[in-house]
Design brief:
The chain is mostly helical and 67 residues long. The chain has one domain. The chain is built from three helices and no strands. This is Transposase IS200-family protein. Pfam families: Y1_Tnp. It comes from Candidatus Omnitrophus magneticus.
């Protein structure tokens, strides 16, 4: 799958460039969540917000960064 490949490759490259990520993500599953959202037409802001909220519940345990 295209998205899975992109996530694996970017995770690997980011881990090499930013060594501290290995300390932050202890489970070696990568830095990205498993989900992704794709749509061509017919969505609105409410649908996107529901997806983001569901991802927040699924991604519990991931490190939260403050910017």
């Amino acid at each position: 799958m295209v998205v899975e490949t992109l996530k694996k490759n970017t995770s690997r490259h980011m881990s090499k460039k930013f060594r501290f990520l290995k300390e932050v993500y202890w489970d070696n599953e990568g830095i990205w969540s498993k989900g992704f959202f794709v749509s061509t037409v017919g969505i609105d802001e409410a649908i996107i917000c529901r997806y983001i909220q569901s991802q927040e519940k699924e991604d519990t345990g991931q490190t939260k960064f403050e910017f």
